From TrEMBL:
<keyword id="KW-0663">Pyridoxal phosphate</keyword>
<dbReference type="InterPro" id="IPR015422">
    <property type="entry name" value="PyrdxlP-dep_Trfase_small"/>
</dbReference>
<feature type="domain" description="Glycine dehydrogenase C-terminal">
    <location>
        <begin position="775"/>
        <end position="896"/>
    </location>
</feature>
<dbReference type="Pfam" id="PF02347">
    <property type="entry name" value="GDC-P"/>
</dbReference>
<comment type="subunit">
    <text>The glycine cleavage system is composed of four proteins: P, T, L and H.</text>
</comment>
<dbReference type="GO" id="GO:0004375">
    <property type="term" value="F:glycine dehydrogenase (decarboxylating) activity"/>
</dbReference>
<dbReference type="GO" id="GO:0016594">
    <property type="term" value="F:glycine binding"/>
</dbReference>
<feature type="domain" description="Glycine cleavage system P-protein N-terminal">
    <location>
        <begin position="7"/>
        <end position="436"/>
    </location>
</feature>
<dbReference type="GO" id="GO:0005829">
    <property type="term" value="C:cytosol"/>
</dbReference>
<dbReference type="InterPro" id="IPR049315">
    <property type="entry name" value="GDC-P_N"/>
</dbReference>
<feature type="domain" description="Glycine cleavage system P-protein N-terminal">
    <location>
        <begin position="473"/>
        <end position="723"/>
    </location>
</feature>
<protein>
    <recommendedName>
        <fullName>glycine dehydrogenase (aminomethyl-transferring)</fullName>
        <ecNumber>1.4.4.2</ecNumber>
    </recommendedName>
</protein>
<dbReference type="InterPro" id="IPR003437">
    <property type="entry name" value="GcvP"/>
</dbReference>
<dbReference type="InterPro" id="IPR015424">
    <property type="entry name" value="PyrdxlP-dep_Trfase"/>
</dbReference>
<comment type="similarity">
    <text>Belongs to the GcvP family.</text>
</comment>
<dbReference type="GO" id="GO:0030170">
    <property type="term" value="F:pyridoxal phosphate binding"/>
</dbReference>
<dbReference type="GO" id="GO:0005960">
    <property type="term" value="C:glycine cleavage complex"/>
</dbReference>
Length: 968
């Protein structure tokens, strides 16, 4: 019989577990967990899941789900299009742990590969949209539209203060309209769905904040008057956002050329599978003067300590954990891995290849249109890129007939059908469609089609696209493979080392869990297919939601939120809607402890709620006296409290039940942030010990990989009374006002990032009750082992009543910093020289490092980290003793590249005679055999913010010989 998956997932084997427990003074992991978790909340019974499957059984079950899905040619469109993922990208990125196990590039020196790929993405988006600044991806097209609306309201504050409105083009996709309506209502931004053209904008009575213009329309129409509409919006003092199709932009005039201020859309059709709705990277580009109001992340270019150009996340003061409720958005996890795929798609094909793909798609759409009109049918528009909408007598019957022939078309309304030609659509498919729709029989040959002969001739772009050499650098698969490998080698991901990040669990992403996501029966399903074609998907999702409900103790779960931050927003929106339904309009305040995750406050603001801080006690727990004072002061204004449990300070708070009871007594709801559920599964259930709602992070506790910053899934779990307020269908009719006692949609697709849900399903199914519970116990064991072993070198800031931490510990460097001047940042950079990713820096307490080893790390890796930290402590002691000044120390100069330590003038230019090459690069003997060198040295963040560059720099910037000659 095959070994249970838990043995493969949990790092320490039985002997090492006993050795660790012996040092901690416990006989078993269960005994340690019983001491760490308060008895008042301890789970009394097993979770109640089905018996664990082995890997073969899990794959068989997934194949059974997949077999129930029906694959057709997906011509539905509506923001999701047929695309071909190049095998070289699928194999070397999507299926490569060097890419999918990477963390968000907050430590840029060890993230240069994924930062370059994301910078390529930004450059691609900037070129295609004709705008100078783009971000490193958003979550989906619908939320990108909503983010643009909020961005326009922030930027055009004069019109906002005058009570202005945002005009939403009725030609937008229904999901974009519904998501935007929900988000705008939450923060009181007035929006109006209307026809957006020059005449209607000019005639609109009232102040205009801005307008969102869809080009193409959801029915496929390309606007010939885009510049005139944008000019009309500007004449009214408004800003203009264009919702664009990125592949269409290869051919048609860009939003920037037409005068747009912002452009948004999806990069899905750049090689990212349909995935039943996600994950897909969205984009937002804007004018340069708007860059500090942008949501999400921007990759920028700075320089390192040697003056070498280096990539980094720019403008980090906009990050939600710093600005909290003043943040531009609550986005924490973006769709980084999918943005990487899209950028490599552009590199692989290059501008000529993209033009060929776009022109071929357009040519076949034109052939379809010519055939339909030749048969006497009427088109909704003669100006289109890939989507032809045709008027018919009985649309439903036609869609059903096409389905029988293997094609999924879009039922627009009773008399209109949409057909969106995709990358894999063939001439034979066009002929078959003409036979089904018009009854005509013709041979189709589009090989000689020229774009200049088609309907787009008057709106074609005349400027060059993707001019940077990176998009002209690949002509063979060998080159492409090596480019992706070269970038991966510049990173430090989980396939090389433990990533000991507190509050950002980075555990094993088992290959057996990853394998099924690219199966065509999962990846090739459009989110708007008929229900009977997605039976397997729906059964898998329902089963996963049921398992998550059992694990958490809640009544129901929705997987629609496509990131943890969106799960937070969905939970708070449910609380807000619940109070409004009960007539408690005044409940608009959220109590948030000082130790809460940074996104909590930002999510509260997006949900239209105001933040009231609650102090922490000296032991890191919630200060009950301050909580009582806030409840007394605000009373029936309190909507909820947001609790992170175990706390972000790394401990199980004994009085969490009392906190929940106090807020409930005041009429508020209890939101328990599930980001730290990795310490609770099988041990305690937030839905039982006091929570009304939680979000989960499937990319943390339930092994969806982080992907360099996404994909993420943030299911929202609720108690019985909040079920009516769970996220609703984003594709409902946006012109029909939703019920006042119902929820609102939060993501573009009904099931969010469904494509990665098989990963979590597989993990849970293979671990079973005992495996999941033991994983939680071992997370506690490993964290306590690190805390205890480092107690004399770097003490832990907070512990519980038994001197134990939760699944993470905060290493307190503040006293050492006072004595030596060595900062937590110095330690983070020095850890790179040992081949480690840094722990979480300066959060939740400035001057500290928060460490979470997870249950997946074996004892040898834990000991390697402990040795590294003790060695660094010895280096700090040298500074304290006065043997070396902190400015001259190896710590302040870390990290070291291979180039820096082989320089002939190392002693003069790098160490200034204060430390040796060996000490710099090989501080412990084990590194002599296996050594990772960062691609760049310490990066100058301040320089990067002062000189913001967020597109690919010219190649000569990296020409070392040219740079040396210019210096001489």
């Amino acid at each position: 019989m095959a070994a249970p998956h838990s043995r493969r997932h949990i790092g320490p084997d039985q002997a090492d577990t006993q050795a660790i427990l012996a040092t901690l003074g416990y006989e078993s992991s269960a005994a340690l967990a019983a001491a760490a978790v308060p008895a008042s909340i301890a789970q009394a019974a097993p979770i109640g899941l089905a018996p664990a499957l082995d890997e073969t059984g899990a794959l068989a079950a997934l194949k059974s789900f997949a077999a129930k899905n029906t694959l057709k040619k997906q011509l539905i469109g509506a923001g999701y299009y047929d695309t071909v993922t190049p095998a070289v990208i699928r194999r070397n990125v999507v299926e490569n742990p060097a890419w999918y196990t990477a963390y968000t590039p907050y430590q840029p020196e060890i993230s240069q590969g994924r930062l370059e790929a994301l910078l390529n993405f930004q450059t691609m988006v900037e070129d295609l949209t004709g705008l100078p600044v783009a971000g490193a991806s958003l979550l989906d097209e619908a939320t990108a539209v909503a983010e643009a609306v909020q961005m326009m309201a922030r930027q055009n504050s004069t019109a906002s203060k005058k009570g202005g409105v945002v005009l939403l083009d009725e030609a937008l996709h229904d999901s974009s309209l519904n998501i935007t309506l929900a988000r705008a209502a939450a923060v009181d931004i007035p929006v109006v769905i209307t026809t957006v053209d020059a005449a209607s904008v000019a005639a609109y009575e009232g102040e205009i904040i801005g307008a969102v213009i869809s080009n193409p329309a959801t029915t496929g129409e390309i606007r010939s008057d885009l510049a005139e509409v944008i000019a009309a919006v500007h004449d009214r003092g408004g800003l203009a956002t264009v919702a664009a199709d990125l592949l269409a932009q290869v051919l048609v005039q860009s939003p920037g050329e037409a005068g747009a201020d912002i452009a948004v859309g999806s990069a899905q059709r750049f090689g990212v599978p349909l995935f039943f709705g996600g994950p897909h990277a969205a984009f937002l580009a804007c004018r340069a003067e708007f860059q500090r109001k942008m949501p999400g992340r921007i990759v920028g270019v700075s320089v390192d300590a040697d003056g070498t150009p280096a990539y980094r996340l720019a403008l980090q003061t906009r990050e939600q954990h710093i600005r909290r409720d003043k943040a531009t958005s609550n986005i924490c996890t973006a769709q980084a891995l999918l943005a990487v795929v899209a950028s490599f798609y552009a590199v692989w094909h290059g501008p000529a290849g993209l033009r060929e793909i776009a022109a071929t798609i357009h040519g076949r759409a034109v052939a379809l249109a010519v055939g339909l009109t030749g048969a006497g049918l009427t088109l909704a528009s003669d100006l289109f890129f890939d989507t032809v909408t045709v008027e018919v007598t009985d649309a439903a019957s036609l869609v059903a007939a096409a389905c029988d022939e293997g094609f999924n078309l879009r039922l627009v309304d009773e008399t209109h059908v949409g057909i969106s030609v995709g990358e894999s659509t063939t001439d034979a498919d066009i002929a078959a469609l003409l036979r089904v729709i018009a009854g005509t029989h013709a041979t189709i040959d589009t090989s000689s089609f020229e774009v200049t002969d088609g309907p787009l001739v008057d709106v074609l772009r005349s400027d060059e696209i993707l001019t940077h050499p990176v998009f002209h650098s690949v002509s063979s698969e060998t080159q492409m493979m090596r480019y992706m490998r070269r970038l991966a080698d510049r990173d430090l991901a989980l396939d090389r080392t433990m990533i000991p990040l507190g509050s950002c669990t980075m555990k094993l992403n088992a290959a057996v869990s990853m394998e099924p996501i690219t199966w065509p029966e999962f990846a090739g399903i459009h989110p708007l297919v008929p229900v009977d074609q997605a039976t397997g998907w729906l059964e898998l999702i329902a089963d996963l939601e049921d398992r998550l409900a059992k694990i958490t103790g809640y009544a129901a779960v929705s997987v629609q939120p496509n990131a943890g931050s969106q799960g937070e927003f969905a939970g708070l929106l449910a609380i807000r809607r619940y109070h409004l339904a009960n007539g408690d309009d005044q409940r608009t305040l959220v109590l948030i402890p000082a130790s809460a995750h940074g996104t909590n406050a930002a999510s509260a603001a997006l949900a239209g709620l105001k933040v009231v801080g609650v102090k922490n006690a000296d032991d890191g727990s919630i200060d009950l006296a301050d909580l009582d004072a806030k409840i007394m002061k605000y009373g029936d204004q309190i909507a909820a409290i947001m609790i992170t449990y175990p706390s972000t300070h790394g401990v199980f708070e004994e009085h969490v039940g009392a906190v929940c009871a106090k807020v409930h007594a005041a009429g508020g709801q209890v939101y328990i942030d599930g980001a730290n559920l990795n310490a609770l599964v099988g041990l305690a259930q937030p839905g039982v010990f006091g929570g009304d709602v939680s979000h989960l992070n499937l990319h943390k506790t339930f092994t969806i990989p982080h992907g360099g910053g996404g994909p993420g899934v943030g299911p929202v779990c609720v108690a019985e009374h909040l079920i009516p307020f769970l996220p609703t269908d984003p594709w409902s009719d946006p012109t029909v006002a939703p019920a006042t006692d119902a929820g609102r949609p939060v993501s573009a697709a009904t099931y969010g990032s469904a494509g990665v849900l098989p990963i979590s399903w597989t993990y849970i199914a293979m671990m079973g009750d005992e495996g999941l519970t033991e994983a939680s116990r071992m997370a506690l064991v490993n964290a306590n082992y690190i805390s205890q072993q480092l107690a004399d070198a770097v003490p832990t800031l907070y512990t519980g009543d038994h001197g134990l931490v939760g699944h993470e510990c905060i290493l307190d460097l503040r006293e050492l910093t006072k004595q030596s001047g060595v900062t937590a940042t110095d330690v983070s950079k020095r850890l790179m020289d040992f081949g480690f990713h840094a722990p979480t820096l300066a959060f939740p307490v400035a001057g500290t490092l928060m460490v979470e080893p997870t249950e997946s790390e074996d004892k040898a890796e834990l000991d390697r980290f402990i040795t590294a930290m003790k060695t660094i402590r010895a280096e700090i002691d040298e500074v304290i003793a006065g043997d070396v000044a902190v400015e001259d120390s190896v710590l302040r100069h870390a990290p070291f590249t291979a180039e820096s330590v082989i320089r002939d003038d190392f002693s003069d230019a790098v160490s200034h005679g204060h430390f040796s090459r060996e000490k710099a690069a090989f501080p412990v003997a084990s590194l002599r055999r296996d050594k990772y060198f960062p691609a760049v040295r310490r990066i100058d963040d301040a320089y990067g913010d002062r000189h913001l560059v967020c597109s690919c720099p010219p190649l000569e910037a990296f020409d070392i010989e040219a740079a040396t000659e210019s210096e001489n």
